């Protein structure tokens, strides 16, 4: 089967940073399903895993943690899917990724794709949907059904893939959403997705919030840079408020004011359930099914911004380079082999 992968970790402008491969078609066992990949998306995790380091893989490593496709075969323990089902998922970072014609993935991490979306649009959603859903409704413990309606959520990095869905999920829960955006294009995107307010990055958060009549917010979702916004976030957070972060911190985070406010910091890593094979791993199947229902009901719109064909090393290198440039709004998808 065709695949794109690496054996060395190189800068993206190196022609061997990602290479075209021919690999054996795998066979499913246990709870695995074998998916014929129709479309894949790129995410910051792809570029972070691929980033230069002194390591050489004995066998090619395939990246990619966003996919939509069709079930080709199933393992003997599979109960949720059958061959021919159209599915979408993010998968498991400890296994071979989705940048291949066929991929094995545990059925408990997969859901049927939204019927209203084609494969490209569906592939733009899973990783960011899981991250936004788990961050808001599990880490911050916001009530999906509206019990926290009116509470104020600040999303740092509203125009990215995760922020784009966090805006929409938070609005479904009745929250007042404030998003940060650095460019007019990004600000327009956030407003179109339902953000109540968009603030720039040229002022401290407390100053920008004051200009829209807010002293504090109840929740902060940092989807951009944990260190750079830490002190400002703590200052902008309401006493007993909550922060969720998805980007690793590079240095120590001062906790004195967090303690004084009895505030809490929560980390979100959407691969946790797959990495540790937690007892509730099937929750990712369930939440992706719920997101698909929201999409099909018109409550959530897709975040696909650009589609490139075919799926090959050259196009994936270009996609990684664009993501690393920091200019992406929405999601970039590659479709077809």
Structure description:
- The chain has 337 residues and is α/β, with parallel strands linked by helices.
- It has 2 domains: 188 residues, Alpha-Beta Complex (Quinone Oxidoreductase, Chain A, domain 1), CATH 3.90.180.10; 139 residues, Rossmann fold.
- Helices cover 29% and strands 28% of the residues.
- The protein contains 11 helices and 16 strands.
- α3 crosses α4 and α3 packs across α10.
- The protein is globular.
- The N and C termini lie close together (10 Å).
SS summary, helix count: 11
* CATH homolog superfamily of the largest domain: Medium-chain alcohol dehydrogenases, catalytic domain
Give the low-confidence spans.
Answer: none
- Which percent range describes the beta-strand content? 25-35%
Question: What's the SSE blueprint?
Answer:
Blueprint: E1 2-9, E2 19-22, E3 32-41, H1 44-50, E4 53-62, E5 67-74, E6 86-89, E7 102-106, E8 110-112, H2 119-123, H3 126-139, E9 152-156, H4 161-172, E10 176-180, H5 184-193, E11 197-199, H6 205-210, E12 217-222, H7 230-236, E13 237-245, H8 256-260, E14 264-267, H9 272-276, H10 283-296, E15 304-308, H11 313-324, E16 331-335
Parallel strand pairs: 9-10, 9-12, 10-11, 12-13, 13-14, 15-16
Antiparallel strand pairs: 1-2, 1-4, 3-5, 3-7, 3-16, 5-6, 6-8
């Amino acid at each position: 089967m065709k695949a794109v992968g690496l054996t060395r970790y190189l800068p993206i402008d190196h022609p061997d940073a990602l290479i075209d491969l021919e690999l054996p078609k795998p066979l499913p066992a246990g709870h695995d399903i074998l998916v014929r990949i129709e479309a894949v998306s790129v995410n910051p995790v792809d570029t972070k895993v691929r980033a230069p380091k002194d390591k050489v893989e004995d066998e090619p490593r395939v990246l990619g943690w966003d996919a939509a496709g069709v079930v080709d075969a199933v393992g003997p323990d599979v109960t949720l899917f059958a061959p021919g089902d159209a599915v979408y998922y993010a998968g498991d970072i400890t296994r071979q990724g989705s940048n291949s014609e066929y991929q094995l993935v545990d059925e408990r991490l997969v859901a049927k794709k939204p019927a209203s979306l084609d494969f490209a649009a569906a592939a733009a959603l899973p990783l960011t949907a899981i991250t936004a859903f788990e961050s808001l409704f599990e880490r911050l413990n916001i009530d999906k059904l509206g019990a926290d309606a009116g509470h104020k959520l600040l999303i740092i990095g509203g125009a990215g893939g995760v922020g784009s869905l966090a805006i929409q999920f938070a609005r479904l829960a009745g929250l007042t959403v404030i998003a940060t955006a650095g460019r007019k294009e990004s600000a327009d995107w956030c407003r179109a997705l339902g953000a109540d307010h968009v603030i720039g990055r040229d002022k401290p958060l407390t100053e920008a919030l004051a200009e829209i009549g807010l002293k504090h917010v109840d929740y902060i979702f940092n989807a951009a840079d944990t260190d750079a916004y830490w002190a400002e976030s703590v200052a902008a957070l309401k006493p007993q408020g909550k922060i969720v972060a998805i980007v690793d911190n590079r240095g120590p985070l001062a906790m004195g004011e967090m303690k004084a406010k009895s505030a809490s910091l929560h980390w979100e890593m959407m691969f946790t359930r797959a990495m540790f094979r937690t007892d509730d791993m099937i929750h990712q199947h369930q939440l992706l099914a719920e997101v698909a229902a929201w999409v099909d009901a018109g409550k959530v719109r897709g975040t696909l911004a650009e589609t490139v064909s075919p799926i090959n090393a050259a196009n994936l290198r270009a996609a990684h380079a664009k993501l690393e440039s920091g200019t992406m709004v929405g999601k970039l998808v590659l479709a077809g082999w």
